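Pyrrolidone-carboxylate peptidase
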Amino acid sequence: MTHRPSCFSPSRRRLLPILCATTAFSLAATLTPAVAAPMPIAATQEQTAVNRTCYDTSVPGTVEEQRLDNASPGGQPVPPQILERSGFDDDVERFTRILCALPGYRPALAVVRAQGDALWTTAIRRAQRTQQTPDLPSTDDRGLYWARISMAKALRQWQPRKPLQAAERAELIRTLEYASRGITSTRFDHGVRRVLVTGFDPFTLDADIRIGNPSGANALSLDGTRWRVNGETVQIQTVVFPVRYTDFDEGMVEHALAPHYRPGPQRAELVMTVSQGRVGLFDLEVFNGRRRSVVSIGDNNNLWGGGTVAAPVVAPGMPPGPEWLTSSLPMTEMAATAVPPFRTRVNTSVLEIPAGQTTPVRRPDGPTPGSIASEGAGGGYLSNEVAYRNTLQRDLLHPAMPAGHLHVPVLQFGAGNTSEITDPSYEANRDAIVAGSHAILRTALTTLP
């Protein structure tokens, strides 16, 4: 790897003032004078070798982190290609270098938060600016994902001079996760209408390590943007959630969304969760079920939700609530939005276990009274669960809020591409999904009172 100046990447013409400022501030504020001395712009081979001694590579990463070396059929390892072609290899290298200069937990906490914020900021700026070939296009969400995974693995293997307690290491990784997902930076400005949109990481990576998630790409394209709708300024803030049951069990969705349902200047006026769903369809999911039931797929750590369609389970730590919740988005208007080459529908179908029975029944028009939720309109996986958790926060904190879930079409590679990390069909497919998502959201916003 060629080491570039830590704050400026001339080959990509990307200036990162926030990264430089936060890193410099954190180092100056938290390190001893000897450690806080200016770092060289380019590390020598000897310095790089020394830096690597602060990592114990025998410490295994999570299942998700172990995929960093995975290759496509007949191809080279995919994550390094994505990192290099998106420019996030610089961010990962910088993070691992800075970490080795830190003596322990307390100074690291501020630096990790700053680096996580900077990674999110870099991803947003990249997503909203045209990229030059051979870089991956701006709407590609995969670079942020693999950069975060790389940094989390570095934190897991980091061995500072002052040894870390398990809880301290876990807090550092949590801090990185929250900051680099936009959760700590969803701050709305004064004098604007406020909208919160979410997305997800890539998933099913064991089936194809190359894939991205268009809901994540959509979130990156929207964060911080301002639209003029009905003569008023609308500001959009976004977050991207992991495809991991553990994070949901620990309340990440509530931590991200609840502040924007509570009274005050950060209360949103519309909250829409978004995930990837079915081929060729934008689905507006009407009924959200309380339980997990998927058995065909694990999460990104290959953990399973624990339920089946005949015996669905409530997630650990799920706040109290009813079996079913309903979207309050303006679905009729949203479904009428033109989103070529796809179509949009209002989806009311659910799978329920009727009251007093034990066998699941498909109900095309929604649940019947007293039934148990086997699958919401969005299924029995984390897409349905994020929709339920979102609308539960609405009902608990601000019942009049328009809130609901949008499933975007599946992102697909071009026919015959089994090894390349991108192709023209893949790029056109993602761009069309993002454009359609924008159009559907704009339609929803025109209905705000």
